[in-house]
């Protein structure tokens, strides 16, 4: 069974930038999964540090209103990996999931760590590159011209074990054939 993982779509991240395009693509993928009665699992990153925009119990830690009502499951995490010390593995096992699709924030941290962790646990992984977003820029990494989403997508693709698609390729590969 296929499941969709929507990572850290929380106010403390989404309100940090203009993510209309990414949120729209995430919503399209979510609707595909909902229409096919496939599980949609949201991850929430919670921090213990009061200064964090994702501080446990703060408005920033809440799921963003644009997508939160789509969640079949909401699980919490405190590290970049959605698997480390969470209920994700148990949830996926109970659901019989063997193929995990990944969208959400931040591309180069939580999405990438989760994709690698999922592969390490034996899941087929599809990373939908342009249905991820990041608050970071090329300036954050002092690498002029760096396209973070494309860089992460390329690295994961080169692994030859994680399928990396943009939304249009996802539609062609999975939606058009009703194979979600």
UniProtKB/TrEMBL annotation:
Family the UniProt entry places it in: Belongs to the isochorismatase family.
UniProt source species: Lederbergia citrea
Superkingdom per UniProt: Bacteria
GO molecular function: hydrolase activity
InterPro entries associated with the record: Isochorismatase-like_dom, Isochorismatase-like_hydrls, Isochorismatase-like_sf
Domain Isochorismatase-like: 3-155
Matches recorded under Pfam families: Isochorismatase
Name assigned to this protein: Isochorismatase family protein
Keywords: Hydrolase
């Amino acid at each position: 069974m296929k499941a969709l993982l929507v990572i850290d779509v929380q106010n403390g991240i989404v309100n940090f930038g203009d993510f209309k395009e990414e949120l729209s693509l995430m919503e399209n993928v979510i609707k595909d999964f909902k229409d096919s009665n496939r599980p949609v699992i949201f991850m929430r990153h919670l921090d213990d540090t009061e200064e964090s925009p994702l501080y446990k119990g703060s408005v920033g830690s809440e799921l963003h209103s644009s997508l939160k009502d789509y969640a079949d499951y909401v699980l919490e995490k405190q590290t970049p990996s959605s698997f480390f010390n969470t209920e994700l593995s148990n949830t996926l096992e109970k659901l019989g999931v063997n193929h995990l699709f990944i969208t959400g924030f931040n591309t180069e941290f939580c999405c990438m760590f989760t994709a690698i962790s999922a592969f390490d646990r034996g899941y087929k992984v599809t990373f939908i590159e342009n249905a991820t977003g990041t608050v970071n820029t090329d300036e954050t990494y002092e690498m002029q011209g760096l396209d973070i989403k494309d860089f992460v997508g390329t690295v994961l693709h080169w692994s030859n074990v994680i399928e990396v698609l943009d939304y249009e390729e996802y539609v062609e590969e999975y939606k058009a054939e009703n194979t979600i």
